[in-house]
What we know:
Layout: H1 9-31, H2 42-60, H3 74-87, H4 91-95
Amino acid sequence: DVVAGHYSDGFVSVMRVQAARARSAYRAALASLPAAEQAAQRPGLIMGAIYLTLLDEIERENFRVLHQRIALTPLRKFAIASRTWLWGPPARLARGDAA
């Protein structure tokens, strides 16, 4: 089905599990980062925030990724980067929540 570009309930179920795994990995990575190191790790935290937002968008589209590209605009990436640079990672990154 995936190779043929067909969506199925099984595909969506697998993608939901993978999204949960990704959020769990974000939480674990952030939890293991000492607070004193957050400033030095801003670029990684920014990328984590951007990737989590992209995951949110993919999930919002019900994982319809086989026939379309889901992306964030450069302006939105800049806004996420700016917020993360100034105020640190968003709380939802620590929780792994969807937006």
